[in-house]
Known about the structure:
By secondary structure, the protein is of the alpha+beta class. It is built from 8 helices and 29 strands. Strand 25 and strand 26 (549-565) form a beta hairpin. The two termini are 71 Å apart.
Amino acid sequence: MYHKLKHTVITLVSFSFLVLSTHSMAQKLRCGTMERFEYESKENNALLLQRNSISKALKQWKKNSSTPDSYTIPVVFHIIYKNESEYVSLEQIMSQLEVLNQDFNRSNPDANLTPAQFQDIAADCNISFCLAQRTENNDTTSGITYTQTSISSFSLYDNRIFQDSLGGKTIWNSSDYLNIYVCDLTNALGFSSFPGGNPNRDAVVVDFSNFGTIDIAPPFNKGRTATHELGHWLDLYHIWGGGNCSTDEVDDTPTQETENYGCPVHPSPSCDNNGDMFQNYMDYTNDACMNLFTNGQKERMHATLNTERLGIGNTDFCQLPYEDIGIINNIQPLENQIYCGENLELITSLYNYSENAIIKAKIYYQLDDESPIEFEWTGNIEPNTSQDINLGDQIFSTGEHILKIYSSLPNGFKDINALNDTSYTSFTITQGTNIDFAIQTDNYSEENYWAILNSQNDTVVSGNELVSNEMNTFNYCQDLDSCYTLIIYDIYDDGICCDFGNGFVAVNGQNFSGDFGSELQIDLCNTISIDEVMKSNFVKVYPNPTNDYVMIESKTLIEEVRIYDIYGKNVLQKNCHSNKELVNLYMLSSGAYFLQLLTNNQTQSVKIIKR
C-alpha cells in the first residue's frame, strides 16, 4: 500500500498553480500543454470557469455510471512540412497509430515491465483510434492531410498551424474528429488542448522528430509523446498534479512531489508514498520507461467521452461510406412499350446492394433532354432486397421518349458504386383516351366474347379468352377524334347475370349490369372517368398509391369490398357495414389492382397501386 495525501477537489486557484509550476526543460519542454493552457486562458477569461464546470460534470458522471464502455475515436493526422526531412510517411503514421492503440488497450509489448505494486490497477482503457474513413460530407478520406508550408517552424503559441490561409491546415470539426498535427515544433515535444477550449484549436500537436517509432532517436522514440498528449486531450492532468504532493484528480495514482525525468529505479518514493508511478504515461520519463494508465485514469477518460467529448467515440467516421443502391429495372414505363394518353405513372425498382438497411435516398428522373427532377425517398430496404418506388403521375407529350432514372445519396452517404445507379427506358406515348374495362363473368364464360367497334361498325379489337367467375381485365387506347363501342356478346342470349352468377361490366370505374340478352353495348365516348364516378357518389379511396392499406370513405353504407389482381383473380374480400373502412393490403405483392366497392346495391371499381 502507498500513502495518499490528495485533495479531492481542484479549485481555480490550485489549477492556476498547476500551470505556473510546470517544469521547464533546457531546450524543449517534455510537454507544453500547461503553458499552452495558460496562454489560452489569458485569451479567454471564461476558460477557467469552463474547466471547473467540466470537472464537476466528470465527477457527476463517475458517480452515476457503472457500465464499462469501449470507444473508437476517428483520427485525422495533419502533416505540416516545409522540406523533405519534415515529411512524415504513411508507415510512420501507422507506427504511431499502432502505439496509441496498444497503450490505450494495455496491449503494449512492455506492459510486463509495470511493477508488481501497480499491476492490479494497470488499466485496459478500451479506447481505440482509427484513421477517419469518411468526411462530414460523406466522401471517402484517408484520414491524413499533407500541407507543404513556407513556415520554417511553429512555436507552442503559434496559431497559424490551425489555419489554411496562414500556412497551416484548418482543423476538421473537433466534435467529430481527433485532430493530430505533426510539424516542426520548436519549444516542446508536444502539447494538447483540454476539453472545453476553443473548438477551432482543439487538437494535439506533436513535433515530427518524436512522432512514431521508425528511425526516431531515443529517448522519445516509442511514440509516447502522442500517448501523453492524448491523455491531456481526454482530460488527464500530469500525475504529480501541481506539485508539492497535490492532486491529479485521480484516486489510484500515488501522490508524488514533482515530475520524473529519464528512467528512475523503482521504487523512487516521494510524499510518503511507496514509490512514484513514474511508469505512468502522464509523467515525464523517457518513452522506454512508460507503460501504463490506471483504472482511475481510465474512468476519468471514459467520463470525458460521455460528457465534454460525448459522441466522438461512437460515430460512423471510422467506417467507409459503404452504401450501394441501384435502379435494377423500371416497372412503368417498360422498355419499348406504347402507352395511351399523356398521363403515365412512373414506378421504378430500387435495390440495396450494401450491408445496412437503406432508409432514405434521392432518386432523379430525366425525360429526354429536360432537366432532372429530384424525388426524395424514405422507407426501409433491407440488404440484398429491392422495393418498387412510385414516383407519381407525370404528363408526357406524344411521341418516342427516353427516360433516365438514377439513384444517389443512400442514407445520405456517397454511393460507392455509380455503375449500377442508372436505368434508361425507351417508350412511346400515343394520343388517345385510356379505357380500362373489366368483365365479371358468370359460371359460363365460354358463352361470352367481346369486341370494340369503330363508328363504321368495323371491329378494331376483340377477345374471347374469358375465365368463369373471375374479373377479366382489359385496356384499350381510344383515339381522341373517334368514338367506339364496346360490345359484350352472349351466344345463349342470357347475359352474364343473374341465373348463373352475378356478372357485370366495369368501364373506367362505371359499372353496367350483366342482365342483358345476346349483347350489351357501351358507348365508350360517353363513359365517365373513375374520378367522376367517385366524386358523384361521394366516395374517397386513399392513399393511392399506398404502401400497406387504403381507407375508403363513402356517403352511403359500404357493404362489401373486393380486390382483384390484373389477371382478374379475387385476392381479397371483406364484408362491411359502415361508411368508412380500412383495408389492409400488407399480404399483397406490389403492383396494380382493381378495388370493387358495393354500396347501396351499386358496384363501383377503382384501380389502386400497392407499392
